[in-house]
Predict the structure of NAD-dependent dehydratase.
Amino acid sequence: MRIAILGGDGFVGWPTCLHLSAQGHEVHIVDNLSRRWIDTELGVQSLTPMDSIQERCRIWKQVTGETLHFHLLDLAKEYERLKQWLAEYRPDAIVHFAEQRAAPYSMKTDRHKVYTVTNNVNATHNLLAALVETDIDAHLVHLGTMGVYGYSSVGAPIPEGYLDIEIDTPTGKRAQEVLYPTKPGSVYHMTKSLDQILFQFYAQNDGLRITDLHQGIVWGTHTDQTRRHEQLVNRFDYDGDYGTVLNRFLIQAAIGYPLTVHGTGGQTRAFIHIRDSVRCVELALDDAPERGERVKIFNQMTETHRVRDLAELVAKITGAEVKYLPNPRKEAAENDLIVKNDQFLALGLEPTTLAEGLLSEVVEVAKKYAHRIDRSRVPAVSAWTRDIGTRVDRDPEGRALKSVS
Amino acid sequence: MRIAILGGDGFVGWPTCLHLSAQGHEVHIVDNLSRRWIDTELGVQSLTPMDSIQERCRIWKQVTGETLHFHLLDLAKEYERLKQWLAEYRPDAIVHFAEQRAAPYSMKTDRHKVYTVTNNVNATHNLLAALVETDIDAHLVHLGTMGVYGYSSVGAPIPEGYLDIEIDTPTGKRAQEVLYPTKPGSVYHMTKSLDQILFQFYAQNDGLRITDLHQGIVWGTHTDQTRRHEQLVNRFDYDGDYGTVLNRFLIQAAIGYPLTVHGTGGQTRAFIHIRDSVRCVELALDDAPERGERVKIFNQMTETHRVRDLAELVAKITGAEVKYLPNPRKEAAENDLIVKNDQFLALGLEPTTLAEGLLSEVVEVAKKYAHRIDRSRVPAVSAWTRDIGTRVDRDPEGRALKSVS
């Protein structure tokens, strides 16, 4: 297939490009490189030294003989160029990663809130409008988030996107299937909730074939393909905005920094290893809905864990210390989470679960590049409200860390 | 109260400004005048001759002695100016009409889709982010639409925004209240569905006090205030994009144009007279939620009617002919609609229902200005999809109108 990978230079985008190229697909990376600009803005960098996208593509060609095509294009701002691009290349499938993806970044200041909404909503909507306008029947696979479901304890498993409900009518109860009621916990998560409504409309009105992947928190860094050459290495974020919880614990352990648990650590979240993430995209691509079908929604995760349990596990393996800090987020202190992921299992996904070997692999990567870490950028300090901001301690080395335990 | 009325130059915005000014409030109109620009773009004009906003404000001052303050500002594009404006004026309440509000316009071309999404989402989100940033605890009253509920027959009354559902859990059924599952039928309606999620998040995360008015189709043109001087007249749209169904029937009757029913006319919709619309905004303003409360949602409508019944009623009063035309929209041919509006009734709303006298008043207005009508702009021709577009007849005078009956 000819596959356009929007946001193909990012953390999940890049290994997905390599994976699909290795499967024999013609891969086109469409990216505005905004993630690299945000690194510049924040003054942080990937823990792993990351080459330019052009250089990465050159190395892949050298290693495998396969071409990755790169197109610099801003989905959110360049609607007419997007349309021209689609009309010229007419992809069979599109994988859409091209959104600002960090909750803490989206809550940093009002400018970051506005940027995240404008960028993410316009990117997704431009794509949908352009697909209709160019009359391209490509299967669109979008990277969403488990966060659209919210993290309150519902006492029932989270289904894959749709909820069966009963409504009282004058003639008795009536069963109905609805999009799972959304309860996003950050501006970033909110944009993925908005995306769901855009998808629902365009599938219904225009028959677009759309799959939405509600992904858990990705951990790990290597896939089989990124391992093939040092310059194909995946980006690896350790900073308080873009680093995600489990990877951050592993990095903190590697550099002798306390494992920073926010609040009680009773937050339960869904996880998936990067290797499974790229495999899920492949499986989803092969399982396209028909025209006129509702949006297909997968829960793209393999296991759930409580944050404090993860911290204790990493501490046990590495000997690191665990610190309980004030939570910069506005969220339930504790929640249960049971998630259905039957669809990917039925399609043949074999989950890579939290094994000590894989955890240690990440610690090894972190140790190898530890000299590149700016310790002052490790704490997560973007607060969800001004009030919360005053309670969040900014001391990078934990000397004055306030404890909530 | 000092009240900012965003979009205060529009069809419901303007009479709302006058109504609230007449109640003694300090009224600030904030508008980018985009609706006037769209008239220019489409080459149509309000049936009623409409003065500039500055002139309208001058007349109001002359007639009543009250000042209407006008501020030219683009909510969607001028975030920093919006923030400055809020910080300077610190309104006690904000009424937000500032969105592109025509479904057919939003479906006209891909450019119109993109404009509607960008404009509406950014306007609403900019406002929310700016309220948080300036730390202004104004009650925000937003004009939404009944269309967020969708128009399928659910066999149960549509509640006011929230639905009580039951979820299966391992320990039995569990009751939960959720936002009514949204099913918007156009890009325009979709933006109001997106707004709901923005409101939910900002009420929850930042304690913003928000009321969302799910309004039905507005009909009529005069309010007590617009009647006070010829130059205070409200705008009155008759064209196929901005004209709304009942008003269009009345105008068509006035100029001897057939009443154009799309599809079978079995669509059931909710209606409200413009006089009640401005009164509802007043009632909602006085009934603000507390900080931390969920978004308050009212169904702002007074009655429901089937489109073909309205056409027959107008035909009976006026002797006009009814024509059944292909439907440019993608929607259910027939639907039931029962709507709860208990909250406004409890607050004292006395509904102005479809009375022959009021219907005739609109016909009289239309006859008075009939010489301003471009008959070729009367048909609704913006089609929801390209396929539907090929079936929609564009002949303005009905000579070649295809019948679906």
Observations:
- The longest helix of chain B spans residues 110-134.
- Residues 401-405 of chain B have pLDDT under 50 and may be disordered.
